[in-house]
Amino acid sequence: MGVHEIDDVEPASVCIDRYVAFLDLLGFKDEVEQAERAPARWPRIQEVLRLVKDSLCEAPTVDMRLTSFSDCIVISAARTALGLSEMIASINALTFNLLQYDVLVRGGFTAGNAHHDKDFVFGTAVNRAYLLESDREIGARNPMVLVSPEVMDDVKGLGEACVAWFQEDGAGRWFVHFLMCYASYTHEPIYAGKVIMDDPAQRVRDFICHRLRSDQGRVLEKAEWLATYWNRAVASQGVFAEVNASIEPANTSRGPTIMMRRIVGSAR
């Protein structure tokens, strides 16, 4: 919808009930600035951008739309059960893939009135998603996608299987459980098409341990939160080991394991 079309439409039909996620790639702006000064760093920027493209897609069946700018991404979809499922899958795929390259994601996930097309993204749900990502008082602060109460109400209405894709972070605060694929993984049984998680798990453990040993200040606080989350949600299951600052990264992973979601995309 262009500017002239908006002029002719009533406000109530411009903004409709949607799920909206506002996502921030933490540290990406600094990496871009470093690449401008040191071109040898540019391939990493290209790889991160490729991962974003491969991880996300527009899904016409749920009116899922994407907008990316600088280090930020906005995803939205129709407020339906299938729309919620696609939002969860998209956030998890992006977070899973970027974590393989030591890029952390922070964001807000809301529901409410929003308009999202190729020209404009706006609405109260967009505003609140941004606040959940960025506000120092009510926002996520750590590398998580914080979920608003109305989204959690929808999630709980779909049953325990859907609730399992979320974790609590303090009283009444929920976030997308982006380590779910590690927490629920078992080595047996082996079956056709099963993704073996040992290498990606070791890769993530190495990145977290390296951060715990080298980061400082607020960046270290984020790493410490991630380490606590990994140990509570993943290591406690007994399949993958814990992380802490005393562990030297093993660097034995044979490379990243990447989820691709572009197959259901559609150009508009």
Can you tell me about this structure?
The chain is of the alpha+beta class and 268 residues long. The chain has two domains: 1-177, Nucleotide cyclase, GGDEF domain (Alpha-Beta Plaits), CATH 3.30.70; 179-257, no CATH class. It is 43% helix and 17% strand. The protein contains eleven helices and eight strands. The chain has helices spanning 3-7, 11-14, 28-37, 42-55, 81-99, 124-134, 149-157, 160-163, 180-183, 198-214, 217-233; strands spanning 16-25, 65-69, 72-78, 105-116, 121-122, 145-147, 166-168, 174-176. Strands 1, 2, 3, 4, 5, 6, 7 and 8 form an eight-stranded mixed beta sheet that branches. A hairpin with a 4-residue loop joins strand 4 and strand 5 (121-122). Helix 4 packs antiparallel against helix 5 (81-99) and helix 10 packs antiparallel against helix 11. The longest helix has 19 residues, at 81-99.
Looking at this protein, list some descriptive labels.
globular; 17% strand; alpha+beta; 43% helix; 8 strands; 268 residues; eight-stranded mixed β-sheet; disordered C terminus
Number of strands: 8
Number of domains: 2
Which percent bin holds the helix content? 40-55%
Query: Would you identify the CATH H-level superfamily of the largest domain?
Result: Nucleotide cyclase, GGDEF domain
**Uncertain runs with pLDDT below 50, 5 residues or more?**
263-268
* SSE class: alpha+beta
Indicate the proportion of strand residues: 15-25%
**Any idea of the CATH topology of the largest domain?**
Alpha-Beta Plaits
**CATH class label of the largest domain:** Alpha Beta
Any idea what the shape is? Answer: globular
Give the C-alpha Rg: 19 Å
Tally of helical segments: 11
- Overall pLDDT, averaged? 90
Q: In angstroms, what separates the terminal alpha carbons? A: 12 Å
Q: What is the helix/strand order?
A: HHEHHEEHEEHEHHEEHHH
Main beta sheet: 8 strands, mixed
Can you tell me the CATH architecture of the largest domain?
A: 2-Layer Sandwich
